[in-house]
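Q: Two folds, back to back.
A: First:
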Amino acid sequence: MTAHEGQQKYMINSYFQSMSLARRLSLGFTSVLILLLAVAITSIYALQLQGQRVQRIVQVNNVKTTLANELMESINDLAIRARSAALFTDMDTKQLQVEFDAAKVAEKSFLKTEEALNALMVGDNATDKERALMGDISAAGKKVLPSTAESLEQALDADTVAAVLTLSNRVRPAEVILRAKVSELIDLQGKINEDANKDVLSLQRTVFVTLGILVTVALAMGGFIAWRITNSVVQPITQMQVMMSEIATSQDFSRRVPVERMDEIGMSIVAFNAMIGKIQESSQQLKQKTADIQAMMHYIPQGILTVVAGNKVHPEFSAYLETILETKDIAGRDLLELVFANSSFNAEILSQVEAAVSACIGEDSMNFQFNEHLLVSEVEKKMPDGRVKILDLSWSPITDDMDTVVRLMLCVRDVTELKALAAAAGKQKRELDIIGQILAISQEKFSGFVEGSVEFLAENKKIIDAVGATPKDGLDPGTVTELFRNMHTIKGNARTYGFLHLTNMVHEAEQTYDDLRKNPDAVWDQEKLLRELASASDAIEEYAHINKVKLGRTGPGRRAGVEKYLMVQKQDIQDALDVMDDSIRGTDLASMRAAHQRVHNMLQMLGTVRVQEALEGILESLPSLAQELSKEPPHISIVDHNIVLRTQIADLLKNVFMHLYRNSMDHGIETGSERVAKGKPAAGSIQLELALAEGKLQLKLRDDGRGLAVDYIRKKAIEKALITEDQKLSPEEIAQLIFAPGFSTAEQVTEVSGRGVGMDAVKSFVEREEGSIELRFLDPQANSASDGYRPFETVISMPAKFAVQANS
């Protein structure tokens, strides 16, 4: 099929598909009727043509039969005349002449009839067999006629009877042939007529059969057209019905019924698809809203549920509620069992909540307003593992168009951390307040205040213990006055220095003493007095602890300003206090976390010092030490990984690393010439690295010198009777011998080494603060170097409390 033909077919299909159903029905049945009419007309016309043909054949054949019969009569007449002349020679001449003339007439009739027959034997009027017979008849006639005429002439002459008979007998065979041919022609004409009649009958049967077939086909075609048209109506309607069912089942509104035509059914399908499109649009909007709500319910970090009649929890709730309540068994649960089980509320309060919820659902929204105050807003709930969660509860009514409460919505918020952060923020604020108050005075004044306050508290405790539970012979006013005076002195000094938290705490004890002093009816309560005294003592201890641990200020006083030991500015403390004030009043968990972390980091940095600063004096002395030892000043590097140290161990580290750095310079790093000879830089390098891991602070010191003389250490240890000659020790065990008291590898005593009070003193310093020190070989796989020296590092481990990981 060419492209043009395909386009034509498409246009025709489009044309028919665009027809209306009524027009299509009319066109279909009209086509069937036209076909039936055409079949009838064609059949009648064919029968008429065939009848005319048969009629013409019969007519011609009848003429030919008549002529053949006439021809036969002429032959008979001629034969009779000829035989009569031969047999009846006694006829007179006149009679013979009559016979002769009659024969001539018969001969002429024969020739005329023959000519007429030959005239009919042309074209479609005769068959080849008829024409052949006519040829045979003409040939036989040419033999018979002249002989007959000759016989008659001889009879007239009356020569001899024998001659006439001879001639007659000679003509006899040709005459027989002629008769036979004429008879055959007559029979053939009868057969042709019979065959023509049979053809007519056969044609009639064929026409009737064909007409029946065509009628049947037409009826079938009409039925097919009716079926197609019915199907074209039923099928799309059924398809629409099936599609409706499938859409209703699958809720897939993106599906459409194909539009293959634009008749009444097609327009109905278009309208149906448009309706589905509207439903799809509405469904998508509904799905989007539902998805938004579900997403919100799934991701919102808040517990949301609704309560229906019977105080039951509706199946739809936020996913975060499972995290808050730590259970997946929520839907359909009783509200009080789910939320308030294992809470701090008694049965009365729970009954009140249950009654309030029941009184709201199914009633006018005004009932909620009346009962809202009975719905608790916070509950402390004990979890299965013993933890206590603080849950914030927010109640809201869900009403219908009639303003009737159909459900109650309960928003549950876990404010445990928020409360804890608020408490921690309050504690941090108090701590920051105390730090600010302490920093306002010198260490010397603060130390004097603490020592004096401790003495006054100790004296008051001694007095209270001496009086006992019940004063004997009444309470001595002088005793109460002394108690009051001591506490009043502490309060006065605290107020003078601005120690507000301490002032408030001491004020309670002072008020009790003042009441005992002025009120005769006041009762001596030793337990209360000791409790208030302990509280005042704890408050003073809190100030002293912060001063020592947070600020790193100890002893009676320091010449250097406190700022040297404080790693943050005083303004930062004030800023942190402002942050704490805002966070305590706020409810934003993230902001409170950030504020808490900020202040926590700042408090961690109080009373810390970087190792570079703690070892500043030692590091500055190394160049002069190198000059004294005739060595190049070393390259010093410190990798602290942003770790700072508490000032409590600053003096310890100075004492420890004074020995370790001097040992590296004296025993480890070679002279410049030795190092150059070994391919090393003339100046050595010493590296200190800090690390915090597994609750330990590690300080690793290593240099690029000759290393540790393991063999020589073993030799010196044998000489000093620390080990025996046959005692087998690993290289690591031998290395640890340098920490033995009095052990030294120096050949002679100098200002730098050889006095035997080095590494054992270092070990003593470290262990005094619950630390440890060891030597580790940097190449643990090698047993010993060729020159007896092995590279190593000194590792000091201290409790992690002495270090802080500062923010980068």
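A: Second:
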Amino acid sequence: MTLNKFLMTTASAAIILSTPAFAQEEAAAEAPTRESALERVLGTVTVTATKKADVEDVQTVPVAMTAYNADTLDALNVTTLESLSYSSPNVSLDDVGTARGTANFAIRGLGVNSSIPSIDPAVGVFVDGVYLGVNSGVVVDMFDLDSIEVLRGPQGLLFGRNTTGGAIVVNTANPTDEFSFKARTSIDGPVDGDRGGANANFQAIVSGPLIENVLNGKFGVSYNTDDGYFKNLHNGENHGELQSVTYRGALEFMPTDALTFLGKLEYTDARSDGPSGKNTAYFDRDNFDMSINNPGFGENETILGSLRTDLDVDFGNGVITNIFGYRKYESTSGADIDATPMTLFHSNAEFNQEQYSNELRYAGTFDKLDLTTGLYYFEQTLDYTEIRNLPTTRPPTLPASIPWGFYGGGTLDHTVWGAFANIDYSITDKLVANVGVRYSVEEKSGDVIYIRPRLPCSVVEGTCSATGNNALISLITGGTVQEPNGFRDSNEWKNWTPKVGFQYFWNDNVQSYAHYTKGFRSGGYNFRITDLPIFQQFVTQTGSLGFDEEEVDSYEVGFKSQSDDGRIQVNGAVFMTEVGNMQREVNTAGSSGVVQNIINTTDATIVGIEFDGRIALTDTLLGSFNVGFMDAGYDKVFFDLNADGVVDREDLNLDLPRVPPMTYGFGLMKDINLGSAGAIIARASYQHRDRIAYTDSNFGWIQDADMVDVDITWETPFQGLTASLYGKNLLDEVQIGNDTQLPFPGPNSTGQNYSYPVDPAGGTFQPLKKGRLLGLELTYVY
């Protein structure tokens, strides 16, 4: 930690510790009874991720996880899942940046380095029990939350495929059986005068009984308007504008004491600029300068619904649960990929996704045995069009009357069937055996349309297909092109996902566990095939038109401990993850811009250690910490990662992408009771993440980050009214969503002093994230 970073963090903590003590002493005799912020945060945090009949204390489950209840989420000022990116060890919950709202999550070094929508995630996201089938539209405004659970390590047994890195479980708040109302408004923006404008948000939720003891209801709305944080040096205008609105409704119907129906429906409409990209051939990595001649755009609509049915049964004193889910996501977007004031590489996209899912499960207890078992079904359809504007590639002989553009993409039908069973058996009062297995059958059927010059068409609208013609190519070549326009293919995968482990309770407050589990990340097809000769070479080498599954074997030993009064909590884990047939997006240069190939490239091993916990230092001061270490290396490489023409030790010695060697952080929370004047709750946190390689060649990389956040909240004397002053990223760290190499000529950047290879002549496309923010928030709860 550099001196200025240490001083900034220490100063933030000093704000907490130096709040006038006399106010607390004067208020002691006058203050009404109130539950302090520490008591609310230190309360038992229950989790739903084990899918048992009753929710469990996070400290009793044999899973490495960080759980946030509603009070903690409020204290951390969580607005999106990305807000939690730096609050757990070995966890990165980043937005990829290329298409706004697209998750690029990685846990324990397993994640996705792409915005291609046909690639399945390595970290599964579940909202109210519904799995989100694609990464698109995941990093959006979230409000009225009950809890978020971040599970580290493969979760294939209970959550299925595409959770090889872990799972994020989001539980929105349910309707209440008493009337309640909550309103929140906030405004924040950059402090630096050479940046853009303010970001404002308003939320309101009303909840209560519609028919007492029979029907409860809830309705909420969230509106966000952002003037754009960045200043586009090309025209002096703000960039990063956003307007979005979310409506959420819920009904809870309780016809009998044993039967409950809970329905939730959410609609989101968002309009924004495209990515705020910078090109490192023109601007230094460590500033917020950008200059683009195409502001881009993003428009999307999302419908997310779920219907949960719970029936209490006498059999095993258990519960039968059914969760039906539906999601429809439609988006169009445009981006300046060359990230310069020239038109070298601009791209538009259309993407539609529709999914249905259903999980039927039973959970019950039979003496020493806890059983959870269920059936699962999931289906989705994807339709994707990509349009590339690359004017410098236009043949000089092509008549001006003929438009020039690259069009392609793909469609996909995706179905998964699954069955699972998990048993926790108490061998003794202290020793519990954990045994489970999941069987899944997955089918994918896709049409892939090569992205190449052709007359304007749309995959989404059905005017661009794998069996269509090559009209524009034929015009260019005089009608001699006989190459296929794309392909149609299907595949099926069947897998067993076992888990075997033991859990030992040393006493009521200390437990340790050890387990082995397996996970799979789905195979599939690349919707972004832009270089046919390279693709055909891959097909010849692999014998397949798509890419195969990624397989993970994970071994973990951990412990969880807390004091009798819950004021001290320390958890830790050691893990080893063996990855077979690792899926990677390998980037190379080509005539159609960046060539992005999805390939099974390597076998690898990742080992790590992580600790996290909290300590109540006094009755009014709470400290928290987390630290994670990872060491990763390739065991076998069967693809040329660094594009030097051979597969050799140079490839074997490359760093695995998305694996920071170290993440760590600490925080302080202070609660000061002011008696008749209310109370002050102050929080400061510091988080560090080491630099990581972003691409397999290690040519793309993301710099390290040191994040300092501060929040000072005044619980006013007016019942239910609070006011907060907060600061985020106070060190003004430059963060980016990705680091994609560009093939275009530009200034020579070899004079820049980087440990990784210098940027290419054309630079790299880096979507910027916001820097330093200061904000004010008002909340009223009735």
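Q: And?
A: The two ends are 44 Å apart (CA to CA).
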